[in-house]
Amino acid sequence: MGQPAQAGGESPSLGVGHVRDYLALLKPRVMSLVVFTGFVGLLLAPGSIHPVLGTIAILCIAVGAGASGAINMWYDRDIDAIMRRTQGRPIVTGRVDGEAALAFGIVLSAFSVMIMGLAVNWTAAALLALTIGFYVLVYTMWLKRSTPQNIVIGGAAGAFPPMIGWAAVTGDISLDSAVLFAIIFMWTPPHFWALSLYRCEDYARAGVPMLPVVAGKAETRRQILLYSLLLAPLAVLPWGLGTVGALYGMGAIVLGALFLLGAVRIWREGDGPKAESAAKQLFAYSILYLFLIFALMILDRAWTFGAAA
Q1: Are residues 104 and 130 in the same domain?
Q2: pLDDT, tens digit, 9 for 90 and up, residues 123-136
Q3: What does the alpha-carbon distance between residue 58 and residue 183 come to, in Å, rounded to a whole number?
Q4: Which letter, b or e, does each residue of 255-285 get, where b requires 16 or more Cβ atoms within 10 Å of its Cβ?
Q5: Shared-domain flag, residues 167 and 195
Q6: Where in this chain does the entry annotate a coiled-coil region (predicted)?
Q7: Residue ending a domain, choose from 172, 207, 230
């Protein structure tokens, strides 16, 4: 695996800019969704948790997610230097040394798991460790470069946070938290495949076997539609289980229908002149969709408590 050249040849100073580079290693945009879904799992779980312990649990999820991102950037520094959307990352540009980034990620991983176990409970800590290990060892080091199913299987890593939040309160997992996991797991493939449709050349140049590179764009569009058809009803299931109420259920139906319309548009456009636009729009909407689905759970819980008061 090639090591990208260091920019300039001088050691970066330990100023504000350098701290910002280390923060960039944590993939803060990805972390924000992870933290949010973990918080929703904690909020929906039956029982209660002391606010201080709840805050520690969420911080541990955030730090663990960021640590995974740092190790991912260390391992992928060779292909990150090739792909346009990742060429500005701190290791690629030489703003952060690769080995320092690896050490940073390992220390944060161990810290987040140990604090979660000691302060909250060891079930949540075990799930957090599983999440970090799955993202780094299974997805980053194995699946990403070896199979077009990388996103399908590897998506589990991003789906664990609601289960971790749930376990932080209850000390166990349940069908309800497993459904929250399943929603993110089923959302991940169409989300990333929409991106890969218009970044296909980038992935091909880096040798990453994303579905459109290996199976073609037509099959990718078909798979996006298939997963969207499965995702839409799955996202309504928390209402059916009684985890949340009708406010969430109605909202999830509308949001799922819009997601499905976006997938149908991609499928119908084919390789037409608006194909790239359709893929970009579904990718952007998919991020909003996941946020709104989990935000609706919070609103539904607040509305339910307000009606009962």
Answers
A1: yes
A2: 999 999 999 999 99
A3: 20
A4: bbebbbebbbbbbebeeeeebeebbeebbeb
A5: no
A6: none
A7: 172
